[in-house]
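Tokens for Molybdenum ABC transporter substrate-binding protein. Go.
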Amino acid sequence: MLRVAVAGSLKPVWPALMASFPAPVETRSGPAGLLREEIEAGLVCDLFVSASEEHPQRLRQAGQALATLPFATNTLCLTVRSDRLQAGDDWFTLLTRDRLRIATSTPGDDPGGDYAQQLFSRMGKAGEAVRQRARARVGGRHSPPIPPGRLAAEWLILEDRADLFIGYASYRAALRRIAGLTVMAIPPAFNPVARYCCAILTPEAQPLAGFLLTDWAQARLREAGFGGAPQAHSPA
């Protein structure tokens, strides 16, 4: 049986992918930064599937991975409590409204938090003020667990822990079906692209990594709100 550590943002689509892979797979999911630390500390694993290239590349540079393989992309979106909206609001006016509570994933532990920080940097001076107001509420080693069956944005906002959440755009369709929430797009000029990447830790994992690039798997990822495989970067 293949042992795989998978970024939590892939949970909505991962079971369907693995149901069509011709070998049994045991999956452990969580924030990619924390999974990488577990692998570095000795977690037995054949394939590590991350929401960023940084963590797989660190394992490769340390000699713990045979290769890395990018296979999908994602972006960010903004989810806000609908009754906080004012006429003419967009993502920028919401983020820069001082009285709104902003939540993100935890930078360092969870790539979603790192991408939110990149968004703030792309916003220039206004983004620095937003960065100071934003709070990491999920995806960290000390974060409270998200209740089963709930999405991070839904739970944080509807439980009054935040007014808006910056998270992955792959959740847009699911979030738009939840009463009381509104999802806002973030323009490409400001929106960082998340590059999902595998670290192949054992030779046995190579078929599974290649499976993620098949036309069938790529179609399932697109149906789940992800973008297609990016061009591979040259190893550092």
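The first strand starts at residue 2 and ends at 7.
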